[in-house]
Amino acid sequence: MSSLCLVLKGILFCRGKRQVGSLCLGKLSSIFSHREREVGGGEHDGKVMENKRMEKVVRIILLWLALVVYVRKCGVAACLLILQQRLRINRSTYTLDFYANRKHFREMIYANDATCHNQIRMYRATFDRLCDMLTSIGGLRPTRNMLVDEQVAMFLHILAHHVKNRVIQFEFRRSAESISRTFNRVLA
């Protein structure tokens, strides 16, 4: 049997056992030392040199295999870490969402009198006076997640446009439950 066949058998044996690294090198070293004894030690220097070269080639191949396995494990670990971070709810995301929602609300109501009138059928000065009256006389209070002006704007937008809860969910970026609760709170 040629030394190349022995090397291939050694690699296939090691790959079949899922052994990469020192264990596999030990098996291949034993194959080469057995082959040297068959050749007869120093009689055939060409065969010995060929065996040593083949052993170096096999070690290089095994190091590449070990590197591939290591890179694969690192890739899997990185993917799992990214997936775990995506599934985790971050507190700062909620804070940024609050400010993004507030910015969207300001653009919708406080941009200018024309947009305010188009959205809630009321000018900005009148809207501010109504919010002040509902706060002082009506007892309307801001909640943890929604200020008084946004509550009143939702209420007026529903009355002005006769839209459904789903439309308000999209425009004000709130849940159906919070919109319903807000509408009833302002109505009372």
UniProtKB/TrEMBL annotation:
Membrane-traversing stretches: 61-83
Record keywords, A-Z: Membrane, Transmembrane, Transmembrane helix
Coiled coil regions in record: none
DUF8040 domain sequence ranges: 103-187
One Pfam family hit: DUF8040
Name of protein: Protein ALP1-like
